[in-house]
Amino acid sequence: LDGIVDEPPRKWGNAVLDAVVQDLRLLKEFSESAYGKVRCPILAARGQADPVTSTSGIREWAGVTISWCAHKVFPGGHSDWLSSPQFASWLRHNSLPVLEPDPSGGP
User: Fold this and answer.
1) What is the structure's pLDDT at 1?
2) Would you state the pLDDT for residue 70?
3) Burial state string for 20-57 with b = 16 or more CB within 10 A and e = fewer than 16
């Protein structure tokens, strides 16, 4: 992390751990029956060595949207893949079809 953040690695690790906990809380508390399906596309990704996510888990995001869902597994841990050229390419490729018409006719 040298050159990326000015904080000691321990504080950085705590921030990452807090983000993971918040992600897991969001996933646990989200209820399609309470909110309905989202209308936007979902891009779900994970690191192959991530101990807190699973490929089957990211595939389940397809069930909470009326749009489309793409998923991919990248080499690395929980967030290692975020800075990879492969992730940037996948994100760019899958972001192009986002401007699709709303099937309900709304804005």
Assistant:
1) 43
2) 93
3) eeeeeeeeeeeeeeeeeeeeebbbbbbbeebeebeeee
